[in-house]
Amino acid sequence: MTAESVSGYLRAASLDEIPQEGAIRVELAGQPVCLARSGGQVYAISDVCSHADVALSEGDVEDGKIECWLHGSLFDLKTGVPTGLPATRPVPVFPVTVEGDDVLVQMES
Ligand code: FES
Fold this sequence. Notes:
Blueprint: E1 5-6, E2 9-14, E3 22-28, E4 31-38, E5 41-46, E6 61-62, E7 65-67, E8 74-76, E9 93-94, E10 96-99, E11 102-106
Antiparallel strand pairs: 1-2, 2-11, 3-4, 4-5, 5-9, 6-7, 7-8, 10-11
The structure holds FE2/S2 (inorganic) cluster (FES).
């Protein structure tokens, strides 16, 4: 798939590639990004836990949060803020828009 830039947004995936209450990992602008779906919403969050260098996309998604599989910190998918230890620092999040079946993520501000 070729990423196309639409006013700062890059096409990240098709909507149906992201499981309901689940996450996938994509590379955008050279960065690993976790695309997650929860409660019908799509979120984009950096795919690197702020506690150690592991992929958040391999964790479980539930109620707008993703759980780091290694030590169990929960991160709010909307804000990137951890809601449980041991992580204490937020993970960057990116604006997402869905156009038809295309999930677009804004990687530039
Ligand atoms: S590596 Fe994610 S909580 Fe420790």
